[in-house]
Amino acid sequence: MNIAVFGLGYVGAVTTACLAQRGHHLIGVDVNPLKCELVASGRSPIIEHGLDDLLLEGVKAGRIRTTTSVHDAVRESDLSIISVGTPSLPNGGLDLSYVYRVCQQIGEALADIRRPHVVVLRSTALPGTTETCLQILKDAAQGTEVSIAFNPEFLREGSSIKDFDAPAYTVIGTEDPVAEAAVRAVYAGIDAPFHVVAPRVAEMVKYTANAFHALKITFANEIGVLAKQMGVDGRDVMALIVQDTKLNVSPAYLRPGFAYGGSCLPKDVSALLHLARREELSVPLLASLPQSNRDQIERIATQVLATGARRVTVLGLAFKAGTDDLRESPAVELVERLIGRGCDVRILDRAVQSATLVGANKEYVDRRLPHVSCLLTDDPETLIHDAEAIVVTQNQPEFVKLLAGVREGVPVFDVCGVAVPAHVQLRGVAW
Q1: Counting CB atoms within 10 angstroms of each CB, which of 10, 83, 190, 412 has the fewest?
Q2: Start-end ranges of CATH 3.40.50.720 in the chain?
Q3: What is the pLDDT of residues 388-419, one digit of tens each?
Q4: Which residues are catalytic?
């Protein structure tokens, strides 16, 4: 393919070199003539292992050249990749002016050239940017057909060529089959799963990945500080943690929904925070976990109350399905909040109903929800029929069946990803 790459910075230079190695013909475009001269001579404008060699190879093979002219680049290409910078504004926001300017210029060139074109946005941008770019392109192109896709990059400085050649997956955000086919052709030969999603999902994935990486680094650092204070090498601890790919490094727990609870997580986080206070160590990330967890419960309670509902049904009281454990269950706290604000709450949880509450579990219930037996019901049909709002905290087959009988217009708040009939007015806390 003939591909124009707009922006010859880190992402643009690496993308140009790697695609040329795969046989594509690249036209690098940049407003800085020096960058164009460097790339055109087979030299990298950035320090990156192996990039000089790849660029020189592409130039010698006649597959890489550069220009400062947007019009020339668009005229001589089938597809344009936008990889210009999206720096931070003084207020922390994102400066998308370079992206929008390039889209305007590409659109204006298309208005003159009058040939269909595909634009691939590779610059890191917040959800909704691709839609705005498409509108800018269409307005400027004056009727010339233009397709667009968002293709986030996951390149790490120092290993970017390896990352390009062997990615975990390729994500393409588009609803245009022409754009999808073009991007598939661009990455043909790269052995990695190919995921086609909505543009906003693709845009959000990039930010989520980077935030998660920042979270992991900060988490490891705080654990390391605590471990060292107790005479433990934090590196030894984390080396074992990452060996567990069933729970620790896996999809487990990375599912948006309800707050955490049970007899372990709340207690153990509290113990770590107590240790940090005792040793006079600052662990702000760990310290924020309980408040963030409480905020999730409050968020759901607020949404339920905002409907004006007073008869509220809660499906699932234990902290997870398949157990009768009510200790630190977020559902218990949710029920407490709803009752405290005047709601008539009724609950269905077969495991809790049939359990003999003893020991720590009974003590917790007696302290936090002594009237739980009055709230639990054995008449699920009436419970569903009379409800003005429903909260589903567990994905149980019985609950799915019951929700088929929900009256039209009754809001159902889903915090566990339950499947419901089409007529049910489902409201997800994170979807």
Answers
A1: 190
A2: 2-197, 292-428
A3: 999 999 999 999 999 999 998 999 999 998 88
A4: 264
